[in-house]
Amino acid sequence: MPTPLVFRLGYVALNVTDPQRTAEDTCNIAGTRISGQDGGRIMLTSNRRRAEMILYPSDANNLRRVGLEAVTPDAVDEVRDRARAAGLRILSERPSLDCIDKGVTFLTSEGHAIEVHTPMPMDQPLRYHGPGVHPRFLDHVNFAAIDPVTFSKELGAATGMLLTERTSGYEIMWMRAADGRHHTLAAVKGNSGVHHISWEFENFDGLKRIADSLGIEERRVVWGPGRHGAGDNLFLYYVDSAGFLIECIAEMEVIQDLDMPTRVADPGENLSNWKVVNQWGALPSLEWIQHFSPCCGVDEHDDLLQLA
């Protein structure tokens, strides 16, 4: 089994109508901090990396793109070549941020923009003041796709990511990178876009603090706390001020075997198999099942297109 060309999640870029409010909400609830501001764009991080979440001012709230950290600089070139060979559109062969040395951005056939790039600079303080408990890092993104089968094949072809687990009808599929975490990217069957974005915390205490922080603002948890069957991780979900579904997790399963066969699970009717979706028993809320945020249009990637 070949090794994945990407090591872990690099960043998530979002278009939002109110970057300041979204940044404030992410700091107050998720416990991140602002690491940079430039021309209305705001960068957020929870560790030494320059940026994990990037907010761009826009007329609508949607997913701009997702960054994946390449295992080596040469892997960026290989992803470019493999994406082309798979018939995927290359949006840009230059990095999206000045602080990144090398990057290539391609589009899935459903329009999800994914940049594979060299690592973010590790130039931020490890410890920082701020409200709430602080995450360890931004750990995964769960897309939404009309055709998760094709989505998984395209990601595998371009990046070498491995299909860790899927449900019997591809209602949900989970893919892992070279760091072995159960999933770095996943997809639920639905409209093309994003379902949720996830921060990882040290332990269950972090999830309790998130729930308490939401209560201060008279907001509520959408689903959780619980423990997923797929990934075996603790979880809790809420909706942020820009309408994105945010997951907070701890204790994600790590898989060392590159040759492990893909697991196939029966999700039950309407995700009713509690052993897969939540080992603690409480099934997902209708709000969780129906949640969806769109991807932006290709013409909104002006920071890439003008120099592509």
Search tags:
7 helices, 2,3-Dihydroxybiphenyl 1,2-Dioxygenase, domain 1, alpha+beta, 18 strands, 308 residues, globular, single chain
Structure, described:
By secondary structure, this protein is of the alpha+beta class. It has a single domain, classed as 2,3-Dihydroxybiphenyl 1,2-Dioxygenase, domain 1. Helix content is 20%, strand content 34%. The protein has 7 helices and 18 strands. The strands form 2 sheets. Strands 9, 10, 11, 12, 13, 14, 15, 16, 17 and 18 form a 10-stranded mixed sheet that branches. Strands 2-3-4-1-5-8-7-6 form an 8-stranded mixed sheet, covered by helices on one side. Helix 2 (73-85) packs across helix 3 (148-159). The chain starts with 5 loop residues before the first strand and ends with a helix. The model has no long low-confidence stretch (mean pLDDT 95).
The CATH architecture classification is Roll
Q: How many DSSP H or I helices? A: 7
SSE series: EHEEEEHEEEEHEEEEHEEEEHHEH
Major sheet description? 10 strands, mixed
β-strand amount:
25-35%
Q: Quick one: overall form?
A: globular
Which structural category fits the helices and strands?
alpha+beta
> What is the name of the CATH topology?
2,3-Dihydroxybiphenyl 1,2-Dioxygenase, domain 1
Domain count, please report it.
1
Helix content: 10-25%
Q: Report the top-level CATH class.
A: Alpha Beta
CATH superfamily heading: 2,3-Dihydroxybiphenyl 1,2-Dioxygenase, domain 1
How far apart the termini lie comes to 33 Å
Number of strands: 18
Q: State the low-pLDDT regions, or none.
A: none
Report the C-alpha radius of gyration, rounded: 18 Å
Q: Estimate the mean pLDDT confidence.
A: 95
